[in-house]
Structures are given as structure tokens and as C-alpha cells.
Amino acid sequence: MDAISALHNRVSVNLLSEPAATKEQLQNMFKAGLRACDHKSLKPWKFLVIEGDARRRLGELMADVKATTTSDGKLSDEERAKLLKKPFRAPSIIAVVADIKEHEKVPEIEQLLSAGAAAQMMMTAAHAQGLGAIWRSGSLMFAPQMHKGLGLSENQKLVGFLYVGQIKASKKVPHVNVDDFVEHW
């Protein structure tokens, strides 16, 4: 698939299945992510691959972190079961992390945006290879306990989880009128 087609036709796909992305497909996604805009070439990114049994551990972490937000520190069995299943919505999950560097000319916001751009490049690379992907976030990703559980340092922030797999059900590319979003100043 050519680059323009990949950029124009990428959509988030939430119905994903096995098999997981191959090592080569993941490498292509990482290579694309590493081409994101990056002021002063700080490379403010880190990618954590979560597959296989690590998805169970992520579900447990999600449930434990969610429990800390409740008044009694507990979840119902139903809530816990739902959180334990979330990482199994895709065979591969990539946690995209902004690895913030101290720099007088590159503020934290630029580095966060660069990590977000890396995630978007990876999403497009997944699509270009025939994979489905969806960028997931939510309140849990902002919790310090989630960062600690993922082994992130003080200078690292979770940008999102990219769920990647085979496309179970296609999604139509919605038409968007470019002129609705562009003005000339």
C-alpha cells in the first residue's frame, strides 16, 4: 500500500483477533514511530510490547489500579472480571511512553506531542501492513500506580495503548470534507 492511501484510509479497528503481529510487522511499526517529528532529536519515546501472558498481568494491574480509585479499595467481581478481559481484545498491545528529557529548548509538551506522533505513525504502519489497530486510553493510564506497575520512571508518561491484531470486521472509512477544517489566514 502506498503512503498516501495508508494515510487517507486508516481507521481505528476495535474488533481484533489472533494471530499477533509478526516480529517483522512490529519492527516496521517501531521504525515508523521512530520517524516522528522530534525537536532536537531527543528521541522521547519508549515502547512496551505486551503479548501472551503479559496481557493477563496487564489486566490484573488495571484491576488493581481501578480498585485504588474506589472508596473502599475494592471492585465487584463483575468489574474485576471486565478489567481482566480488556487486554485480551487484541493479541498485541504496545504501550507508548513519552520519555521526557530535560532540555532548555524542548518543553515537556513538545515531547509528549512527539510521542503521540510516534503512536500515530505506528497506527498508520499497522494499517499499511494489513493489520487492524486502535489507540486506547482512559483514566487508568494517568494513574501513578499504572506507571509504577509498568515500570516507568518519574520522567516517563504513558501516552496510550495501541491494540494490534488481525481485522475481525472491517470498518468503512467515513467521508470527511477537508474544507470544513481548513481556512486560509
In short:
The chain has 185 residues and is α+β, with helices and mostly antiparallel strands. The protein has one domain: NADH Oxidase, CATH 3.40.109.10. It is 37% helix and 18% strand.
Tags for this model:
single chain, 185 residues, alpha+beta, NADH Oxidase, 5-stranded antiparallel β-sheet, 6 helices, 37% helix, 18% strand
**Sheet with the most strands?**
5 strands, antiparallel
In the predicted model, the low-confidence regions spanning at least 5 consecutive residues are: none
Order of helices and strands: HEHEHHEHEHE
Class from secondary-structure proportions: alpha+beta
**CATH first level: which class?**
Alpha Beta
CATH topology: NADH Oxidase
Helix content: 25-40%
The total of helices stands at 6
Number of domains: 1
Provide the CATH architecture.
3-Layer(aba) Sandwich
Determine Rg (CA atoms, Å).
18 Å
Overall mean confidence score, pLDDT: 95
Q: In percent terms, what proportion of residues is strand? A: 15-25%
How far do the termini sit from each other? 34 Å
The strand count comes to 5
What coarse outline follows from CA principal-axis ratios? Answer: globular
- State the CATH superfamily name: NADH Oxidase
